[in-house]
Design goal:
30% helix, methyltransferase, Rossmann fold, alpha/beta, FkbM_mtfrase, 243 residues, FkbM_Methyltransferase
C-alpha cells in the first residue's frame, strides 16, 4: 500500500475525505460574474451542509441565499450553518420535474446522496463511499411552484441558480420552464465520466443549457482520477441575451 493511500484512509477514518481536484478559482469567477449581473438572489439546489452558501458569504456576497435540501441528516447541519448568516433561507425539499415524493439513496459519504444509483465507474473510483446506507422518502417541489417564495420581498430580483443534485440537474430544469427566463446565471455539475446511472452526458447537458438560452462562462474541475483525468466540472453560465 502506498503512503498516499495510507494517509487517505487514515483521514477518512476521522471523517475527512481527500480527492484529486484542480486549484479552486471558482469563487473569483463567481465574484466577478455576480458583480456584472447584479445578482441579489442565489437559489442553492442541493444545499447539503451549507458549504456553497458559506463559500458565497466568505467571498463577500451579502444577498439572499435560498437553499433546498431534502435529507434529514443534511438539514440538521444546513440550518445551523445558515443561521446568523444574513438573509439565508432553507427549504426542506428537493426540486424536480414535478411535485410529489421520491426515495433518495443516502450514501455512506453523503455528498453522493442521489435519486439515481451509482455507476460502475463511481463504485470503482470512490469505493464504499458511494454504497447506499439507506433510503429516505423525501418531498419534491418544482422551481415553478417555489420561485415566488424564493424572491419574495426582494426588489428587482436578479437570480443565480446553482444546481448540485448528483445527476438530477436536468430534472430540476424541467420543473422550472415557467420561471427560467427570470434566471440570469446558472451553475450545474456536469460529468465527463458519469458517476450515476441514467445521468446525461456532459455534451448533452451543455447542448440543453444552450437551447435554454445560457452561454458558458467557465468550467472548473471538481474531481479527478489519480491520473488527473477530470471526472466532473462545475459549469458556470449566463443568459445569452441579458435584460
Amino acid at each position: 500500500m502506498s503512503l498516499k493511500t495510507t494517509i487517505k484512509r487514515a483521514l477518512r477514518a476521522v471523517g475527512l475525505h481527500v480527492y484529486f481536484a484542480a486549484p479552486d478559482a471558482l469563487p473569483e469567477h463567481l465574484h466577478g460574474l455576480f458583480s456584472r449581473l447584479g445578482i441579489n438572489v442565489v437559489i442553492d439546489v442541493g444545499g447539503h451542509y451549507g458549504e456553497y452558501g458559506t463559500r458565497l458569504r466568505a467571498m463577500g456576497y451579502q444577498g439572499r441565499i435560498v437553499s433546498f435540501e431534502p435529507t434529514s441528516e443534511a438539514l440538521a447541519k444546513l440550518r445551523p450553518a445558515a443561521s446568523g448568516q444574513g438573509d439565508w433561507r432553507v427549504f426542506d425539499s428537493a426540486l424536480g420535474s414535478s411535485p410529489g415524493e421520491l426515495d433518495i439513496n443516502i450514501a455512506e459519504h453523503t455528498v453522493f446522496n442521489s435519486f439515481l444509483p451509482a455507476s460502475e465507474f463511481s463504485r470503482q473510483q470512490f469505493g464504499a463511499e458511494t454504497a447506499v446506507a439507506r433510503t429516505e422518502r423525501v418531498k419534491v417541489e418544482t422551481l415553478d411552484r417555489m420561485f415566488d417564495r424564493c424572491v419574495e420581498g426582494v426588489a428587482n430580483p436578479r437570480v443565480y441558480l446553482k444546481l448540485d443534485t448528483q445527476g438530477f440537474d436536468l430534472e430540476v430544469l424541467k420543473g422550472a420552464r415557467q420561471v427560467l427566463d427570470r434566471v440570469l446565471g446558472l451553475q450545474s455539475e456536469v460529468s465527463v465520466k458519469p458517476i450515476y446511472q441514467g445521468m446525461p452526458a456532459m455534451a448533452d447537458a451543455l447542448g440543453i443549457f444552450s437551447e435554454l438560452g445560457f452561454e458558458l462562462t467557465g468550467l472548473y474541475p471538481v474531481t479527478r482520477t489519480e491520473d488527473l483525468a477530470v471526472i466532473e466540472f462545475d459549469c458556470v453560465m449566463r443568459r445569452q441575451a441579458m435584460p
